[in-house]
Amino acid sequence: EAGVTQFPSHSVIEKGQTVTLRCDPISGHDNLYWYRRVMGKEIKFLLHFVKESKQDESGMPNNRFLAERTGGTYSTLKVQPAELEDSGVYFCASSQDRTLYGYTFGSGTRLTVV
Amino acid sequence: AQSVTQLDSQVPVFEEAPVELRCNYSSSVSVYLFWYVQYPNQGLQLLLKYLSGSTLVKGINGFEAEFNKSQTSFHLRKPSVHISDTAEYFCAVTPASGGSYIPTFGRGTSLIVHP
Q: So what's the pLDDT on residue B99?
């Protein structure tokens, strides 16, 4: 089966610009998660979708971040306007159930804000 | 709430030498424990997990980890490493009950295997 696909793999943008990250989960996986890792720090949870609904968005840092999951398929994470501290690697994961051992991670999008 | 501490940010080791990557956790409830590996330009892959039962858990690529409840540790070991083991390793925990399965990750340990 195809894995979790994220694109772009890298993005360099200027402070104040907008960036949209996309995640295509494994087909049939209702659960989709976004995580972020700032350089040298922990991988932090951002939010969790079940199908098209946001189940938990407690990790979203502020209202500059907007996540959507159209029709319960792919998901986008938009950062508008981007700030320097938004730099990091954004991971997406999907699963059929809600346990960590069922996760499949994408390879991440490395976002650099300059 | 849970927390995970990976004390070593980088572990350099020579090929065929043994290695131990340390992970300690803190939690007020029972937890499940995991090690994930991220090879360059790839996503995180599950290396092994502890859910219950035997405290010695064997994973892929010859890795194993031992759950020590009294020391709240879950150290990862391999008796003889290869160049291909060069990667970043993440320890993670989730509550074993309570409905919220959102994991808490450590900061990661970069394993660098030298020839």
A: 62
Which amino acid makes up residue B13? V
- Convert B54-77 to b/e letters by CB count within 10 Å (16 or more is b): eeebebeeebbbbbeeeebbbbbe
At position A99, the amino acid (one-letter code) is T
Q: Determine the residue type at B69.
A: K
Separation of alpha carbons A83 and A19, rounded Å? 11
Q: Please list, residue by residue across A93-105, b when 16 or more beta carbons sit within 10 angstroms of its beta carbon and e when fewer do.
A: bbbeebbbeebbb
The answer to whether residue A90 neighbours chain B at the CB level (below 8 Å) is no
Does the domain at A5-113 match CATH 2.60.40.10? Answer given as yes
Residues of B in contact with A96 (CB under 8 A): none
Of B45, B46, B107, which has the smallest distance from its Cβ to A41's Cβ? B107
Q: Find which of B2, B33, B44 to mutate to test the A interface (most A CBs within 10 Å of its CB).
A: B44
Query: Across the interface, do A105 and B9 touch by the CB < 8 Å criterion?
Result: no
Q: Where are the domains of chain B?
A: 3-114
pLDDT tens, position by position, A44-75:
999 999 999 999 999 999 999 999 998 889 99
The whole-angstrom separation of Cα A59 and Cα A98 is: 17
CATH number for the domain whose boundaries are B3-114: 2.60.40.10
